[in-house]
């Protein structure tokens, strides 16, 4: 029980919450809306919103001096949602999100 308490204290709650909302809930909702076409979904949500969020998450992890392993939170949550609810071609966006988060984190490391 002490381990769980310690883990909860060290958890970056804002990053996890935002990743769940953007990577899971937003992706699922946009996929299920009947008036959102696949093209709009890919352009607006998968490229623009999730791409910007990936860049933000890399910056957030650097700014708050979190561990580099937290770069995987958003891409993995997105991949789980995409695997169960979205077309196969959207799986590859998880790699792009990981790359964007890593680049925004790594570019800040060099300053």
TrEMBL record:
Protein name: Integral membrane protein
Keywords assigned: Membrane, Transmembrane, Transmembrane helix
Membrane spanning residue stretches: 14-30, 36-56, 68-85, 91-107
Taxonomic placement: Bacteria, Bacillati, Bacillota, Bacilli, Lactobacillales
